[in-house]
Amino acid sequence: MNNVSLIGRLTRDPEVRYTDKQMAIATFTLAVNRPVVSGNEQKADFIRIKCFGKLGELVEKYLSKGRQVGIQGRIQTGSYEDKDGQKQYTTDVIADRVEFLGSANGNNARSDADGFNGGM
Q: Are 31 and 9 in contact (CB under 8 A)?
């Protein structure tokens, strides 16, 4: 089973590109807090999220840096060769669902587009 649920905040505005067939691909990084160990400071993981199609279009329209969201999806790994010929490995979460949990300024007011889902 490959299933991921995350809650965090966007570290910057989503980047969106379109394929030749005009399918949106939105990419953003989500800062997800780790559990605090007694006596230590808060730490976070920075996880790359990808959304495709209609979900990617909605991400482009409604999400921005600092926005708190919940993500459901799956982990996908891959690799590529960089310009120096070195093999680079990637790990992404492919989102099936994105739900707004708060605003960029910490206000928990919800908008008309508070939750949306879609997939590839």
A: yes
pLDDT at 109 > cutoff 80: no
Say how far apart CA 51 and CA 40 lie, in whole Å.
Answer: 34
Count H helices and E strands in the chain, helices first. 1, 7
Q: What is the mean pLDDT of the chain?
A: 88
CA distance to 10, 32, 38, 39, 47, per residue, from 42 (Å): 17, 11, 10, 10, 16
d(CA 59, CA 55): 6
